[in-house]
């Protein structure tokens, strides 16, 4: 709280001293101007901090929780002539998750898979009443159309987290899902997840550190093997793709650049059931053979306990490791669990128009939502292709509602929403290293054009991987990679 008051004081001083404000560099001024506007508006009343409800002569406000696939696709298409957009998220960028595994081993650079929110929806950094707030939403007052947020100050020891409220006309909950750990002891403390850019940075840092430490004189054979044992738990698409990337890295880079220790490094993939259980049987067999050929050891087992240097399986086997990556699927986040609204398999229950039917003006998309049983539809898989299409659909629905005068709170009851959302699965794909991939098209009706597209996608990706490594285009000052941004290149 004191830091915020100080900032308000500073901002008032700067506003009064117009000459000093003009002297601020062009880079800093738009951001500062945006901040000044927010504080100026609310510093007049010490008790109300946040954005109040809009008036009927103002643009209605859409509040989007989350900056992932769903939230960003929605924001990209929202008509900012109709709405002001406020995005609340603990992350100031979107992560292109399908390529995240490639950044762990340096095939791609981190900046190539992260896009700043201001680029996706420029209004949040240029328009007077649209904002991006680096914060978590902690609670929603559905009756009063208001959310409660808390700033993210991780890594900034001098700042206390600060609470503020934001009123909404339309609320879109797109806060994603959380990694599942099944309550297994030691996972949160010792394993690394693969969901965010800072996770990929951590994995790359540990991998390189272990490669270098294992080459130091005096390290025992046993310790070398442990340091260079990379264990992946979870044989879904993410675990398999990451194992494939690691084996490529070992075959190419480690053999060339860390030749002294090349015979000590190994990858083990532990899965309780079948790997890639959602894929066709023949594809699973193919993936198993390819991974084994690339040197990945596949172990069927159930992790019982994770210690700092070893995993203990339910049959008592000890698996020493130097790097442990945990990828056993996703489930509802504590925030979603805390919301007192009907759920579908733990996710926020929605109807065919992606509305949360028990409350007014609230919608939910992406991994955090699922169709209610009453809709007669299945809960859709937690996939980017679902989240992206829901975001696109909802943006067009909300634009239509806004155009027809239903943008403000409690004003859309009599508006025809048009066709409901329909999801068509285009197929699943998982890369398994060495530029090989599995494409499962069982649920989709596609022509040979699609196969050609897949081939072209891989060709393009191969070229892009190489090009992006040399020409990373996103200026790093636009990205805030928490908890700390480290340079390990
Ligand atoms: C490594 C990896 C690879 C993947 N590969 C594929 C693939 O190839 N194909 C595919 O279809 N899918 C893939 N997925 C799944 C896909 O990424 C997800 O289904 C998709 O990200 C879901 O989008 P979303 O917007 O619902 O959630 P997310 O993308 O997870 O975004 C959620 C957002 O909400 C924010 N948030 C969380 N809590 C709060 C809060 N309390 N308040 C405000 N904001 C909050 C988060 O910071 C984040 O910005 C992959 C996932 C991973 C991790």
TrEMBL record:
Q: What is its EC number?
A: 1.6.5.9
Q: Which Pfam families match?
A: Pyr_redox_2
Task: From the UniProt record, list the reaction(s) this protein catalyses.
Answer: a quinone + NADH + H(+) = a quinol + NAD(+); a ubiquinone + NADH + H(+) = a ubiquinol + NAD(+)
As for membrane topology, the entry says:
Peripheral membrane protein
What cofactor is needed? Answer: FAD
Catalytic EC class:
oxidoreductase
Q: Which keywords fit this entry according to its UniProt record?
A: FAD, Flavoprotein, Membrane, Mitochondrion, Mitochondrion inner membrane, NAD, NADP, Oxidoreductase, Peroxisome, Transit peptide
InterPro entries membership = FAD/NAD-bd_sf (IPR036188), FAD/NAD-binding_dom (IPR023753), NDH-2 (IPR045024)
> What is the annotated role of this protein in its UniProt record?
Alternative NADH-ubiquinone oxidoreductase which catalyzes the oxidation of mitochondrial NADH does not translocate protons across the inner mitochondrial membrane.
What the record says about family reads: Belongs to the NADH dehydrogenase family.
| Name by which UniProt lists this protein | Internal alternative NAD(P)H-ubiquinone oxidoreductase A1, mitochondrial
